[in-house]
Amino acid sequence: MNDSKVAVFFYGSYMNAAVLQKAGIEPERFDVTWLPGFDIEIGPLANLICR
Description:
alpha+beta, 1 helix, 2 strands
């Protein structure tokens, strides 16, 4: 069994814990962060936009 851990940045609909669970992903913790110089645009999908 591989118990390695990976830090991952999720944005858009994957910020929703219920959506992550449906995808079989159960993070042990959530951290809030931001990416300076980027915005999120939703319509119809969430996208990171470099400003």
